[in-house]
Amino acid sequence: MLMDNPFKQSSNSRIPSEFVTDRDMLLFLLEEITRNLRRSFDARFEYAGLNRTQWRLLAYLLKDDGMTQTELSRCLEIERATVGQTVDKLEQQGLVERRASDRDRRVWHVHTLPKAQALVPELRVHADMIYDTMLGGIDTDQLSIARGILEQMARNVARLGGE
How far apart are the C-alpha atoms of 56 and 36, rounded to whole Å? Predict the structure, then answer.
């Protein structure tokens, strides 16, 4: 069920009621979901001193340990400076470390440390609890259809480039 339209036409509006469409409302809903998901992750991971961005960074490193900050920046779709600050915080917590590249002294690779690897199973439980709540009442077939739709939307948006 879509959220109520917060842009209902007031009686003294000069803007046509078609200004905010059902497609607008669908995209507003997607944004609301991601915003609430970020808040849920931040609240759930607060005990570990982590936020959603830090969790995502760790997840990428666990899949491909030793990524560069530039690679992480591309994956997370955030600025390299923000990745640097995130890595700084994770380093201070003893979860990751930077190691100089053997090939290029300007490049640093980020590696997880045993403390992060030990924390992951616990974080996984909390992430799954969030996902279970978010996806409650949705069967496997519906999720498969939704994933296909979202993947197509992502491809379509990627084609827009920097418009």
Answer: 16
Is domain 22-138 in CATH 1.10.10.10, yes or no? yes
7 alpha carbon, distance to own chain's centre? 27
Summarize pLDDT for 138-151 with one digit per residue, the tens: 999 999 999 999 99
pLDDT digits (tens, 9 = 90+) for 28-62: 999 999 999 999 999 999 999 999 899 999 999 99
* Residue 97 host element (H or E): strand 96-100
Beta carbons of 111 and 66 less than 8 angstroms apart: yes
User: Which two tokens mark 120?
Assistant: 């992951």
Give which of 57, 55, 73, 76 is closest to 65, Cα–Cα.
57
For the chain, give every domain's residue range. 22-138
Secondary structure tally for the chain: helices H, strands E: 6, 3
